[in-house]
Each structure stands twice: as C-alpha cells, then as structure tokens.
Q: What sequence folds into this?
C-alpha cells in the first residue's frame, strides 16, 4: 500500500506534491517508456515490480510527484523520493548517529529532460532534507557512468563522488562503472550561504 504524506514543496519550475495510489498508473508508464529504459539501461518492468518499488519508497521516505509549473498547463513529469537510508556500511558512513537520505529521482517524460526540472526538484528536496529534517548527508546512488546528464546534474548541485564500482554494468557493448555521490550538511550550508551573498551583492 502507498503511504502518503502532507508535504508540498514549491520551486521555480516545479511543484512537488505527495505521491498517491492514483499515480501508480502514470509511474508505470514512465518506468516503461522506451527512452527511459534505454537511458537507464533497464529492461521492461511488470506492474507488480513497479508497485513494489513505489510501496517501498513511500513507506520509507517522502515520495513526491514532480509537476512542471512553468508551462501553460501544469502536468506531472516525474517523481522524486527523499528516502531514509541506514545502510551506513554500504554508503561508507562511519558515524551511525548521522541522519542520511538518498534521493532516487525520475523524470519520466523525456521531452522535459535537460531543461532544469530535475535540478529544480532536487534543490527543493535538499532544502527540505537539510533545513527542515536536519539531514547530515544526502546521497545519489547507483548512477551509471554512461549517464553523463545525471553526473553533470549532481556535480552542479555540489555532490561529490564517494564510491565507484568499476565495470559493474554491461550496456550497449561495453562495461560501465556504478557511482555514488554525496552532499554533506556542511557543504550544503556553505553553498547556500555563498549563493545568498552573491544575490545580495547584485
């Protein structure tokens, strides 16, 4: 069963609203879009597989639908989850008192790729994680090295590469790495402070 929450986050280009049972059908379509599957190096997913994933995300974090709001008719274009994670060993976190999250994200409509919607949504989730929930670290995990768009995105948001498994996935005739990225609380607030100073100086 999908667990809902009452959090809504508003960005410059997006609105993040709670994911509900009614969103499963569109999420199923996104996860089986041929261009999405190709970009992620994934096979087609069954209905049961998709439901299981979203039930897990919703029951272990804050699961949102991403709506594009800077267009004539706002519409759902993807989803993002702020997922609580306590697998400290896998993530390389020594202090088990730290509050850590991961942010699985999907822009399910390829026509919205590369236009800043994913970045805007992630920025709102990071603000919620660090400034409201008091997160110590936020991770973006299992990014394939052929996904240059995602790598550029997380680098632009201040994430640092913290783990790389060499040649772990076979894709289109070659082997690629799996990469984990991390943004710490200290770096988030340093970047936020610097951005505020830049805006004040204008």
A:
């Amino acid at each position: 069963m999908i667990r809902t929450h009452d959090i809504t986050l508003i960005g410059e280009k997006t609105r993040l609203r709670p994911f509900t049972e009614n969103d499963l059908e569109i999420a199923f379509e996104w996860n089986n879009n041929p261009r999405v599957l190709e970009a992620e190096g994934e096979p087609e997913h069954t209905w049961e597989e998709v439901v299981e994933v979203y039930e897990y995300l919703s029951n272990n974090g804050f699961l949102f639908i991403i709506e594009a709001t800077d267009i004539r008719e706002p519409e759902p274009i993807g989803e993002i989850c702020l997922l609580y994670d306590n697998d400290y060993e896998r993530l390389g976190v020594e202090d088990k008192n730290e509050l850590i999250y991961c942010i699985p994200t999907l822009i399910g409509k390829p026509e919205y790729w590369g236009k800043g919607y994913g970045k805007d949504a992630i920025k709102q989730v990071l603000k919620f994680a660090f400034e409201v929930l008091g997160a110590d670290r936020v991770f973006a995990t299992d990014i394939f090295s052929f996904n240059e768009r995602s790598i550029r995105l997380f680098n632009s948001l201040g994430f640092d590469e913290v783990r790389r498994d060499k040649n772990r996935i076979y894709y289109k005739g070659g082997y690629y790495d799996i990469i984990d990225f991390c943004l710490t609380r200290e770096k988030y607030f340093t970047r936020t402070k610097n951005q505020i100073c830049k805006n004040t100086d204008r």
User: Anything to note?
Assistant: DSSP finds seven helices and nine strands in the chain.
